[in-house]
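note to self — DONT lose this again. spent like an hour looking for the file last time. sequence + predicted structure for the chain T wanted, 222 res
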Amino acid sequence: MLNKEKIYQKLSDAVVNMDEEAAVAGAEEAVSAQMDAFEAIDKGLSDGMTRAGKLFDEEEYFVPELLLCSEAMNAGLEVLKPHLRNTEASERYKVVIGVVQGDTHDIGKNLVKLMLEASGFAVTDLGRDVPPSVFVERAIEIGADIIGISTLMTTSMDAMSKVIKLLHQQNVRDRFKVIVGGGPVSQAFANKIGADGYAVNAAEAVWLAKRLVGDQTLPSAV
């Protein structure tokens, strides 16, 4: 367990230190040790991005630093992704995910997408700066089970509520579970707009998605 914790810390530190080479080395070490790739991403790389996000909030890091942190995270992800053990328990469930209109920050969304896919969900990624109507249209079109909406900007939070309002207006709200997440979002906000759940990070998003569709076969990292 100590070795695992050391590798998690190396991965996390590599992201915070914006060190792509260290992220790759840590990821390769995790693979060599036959560690669970999902855990290495969640407790290592994702943890590092969470720490970097806090430094950004505290104005110790700014956008350039955050972008370099994300590049280090992606370098580690490239090593770990081929070793994710896809489960089949949830493959019948479909998720539409995107960053809501007014925001182009998609690091967190991309990580959630990766972990959902690793857990067997079929994910349709709408990208970033997505109008509320597009979430609804695509969810109806593909017969999604879950709609995932994220933002890192307080100015875009109202657009999240518009997605749910549109679902009600089209009389399809009961067909979809709606998950929200992102830096300024909270459980209280999710309750206020009538979302079905809020996830603070990618691993929790997977747990929440599985719970909402009634699948209790959780990934090992949760």
